Amino acid sequence: MSEAVYTRQDLSIMQAWPLERKIMVTQAKIIEWHRHYGGKVSVSFSGGKDSCVLVDLARRAFPDIPAVFVDTGLEYPEIREFVKSVPNVIWLRPELPFTKVIEQYGYPVISKDVAHRIYYARRGSNWALQHLDGRSSDGTPSEFYKRFKKWRFLMGAPFSISARCCELMKKRPFHRYTKKTGFVQITGTMACESVLRQSTYLKYGCNAFHKKEPTSQPMSFWTEQDVLQYLRMTGIPYASIYGEIVEKNGKLVTTGAQRTGCMFCMFGLHLEKEPNRFQRMALTHPKQHNFCVNKLGCGKVLDYIGVPYQPPGTD
Length: 315
Fold this sequence. Notes:
Number of strands: 10
Distance between the termini: 54 Å
Number of helices: 13
Shape: globular
Strand order of the largest sheet: 3-2-1-5
Structural class: alpha/beta
């Protein structure tokens, strides 16, 4: 195993850099990636605020660089409308709709790590069963895997569970596009978003040329505050669902949605304070909420794990 590029202390130092320095370093990484692949690169564009910043940074250096959007059918309508307004965007579609994904594989619930283990434990995989018992794959007690024990009850859930949704609906269309065109992606993911993204950045850095599937994440050392500061400073357009960017208790926040992503994804919902994003969806997007809860069956999933999805104060 190769030695990690950065330590957590390195990342903390970089995250504390002023925005001006982060902009310069990020653009240098974009230029490095662009030159390495002879200009055959494109920007992975979700329509969210992070990728808006990435597209703007990339196009300040390379105005003709294409952006690539996967139309999963799970985006907020405001996101899709915004993407339509952005020039030079290539639209892709997944092979399977979300209805087929949950029918064939299962619902995305709790987290990718938990859903992945439930999916394989139900199929008899010993490593997954051991992890759900708080043990390593060799059967020895593990403090690291102990965190999965609380979700072992999902083995008996009356519905299927898996973490395949993101892979099937987002990653595969990008892989097909790259294979067909030879264009390699630049993504706007940040280390602060998850433990997995942090560990990936520490191991490979921004431009991972030598991975089996090379990846570029030139904004990895940015924070949420950096993104909001950049949007407010530059005045570039972003989707209306976020509302305005205002200062509250010394920090920048959006008056609308904090984050977007897929509307019907239940990963992390159990950690949110009320009103959670499903409860807000009931008020802002009632048609989509009804489809998600009743037609897709997400209501029965959330009932099973005890997470509310109707606005507080309603039955």
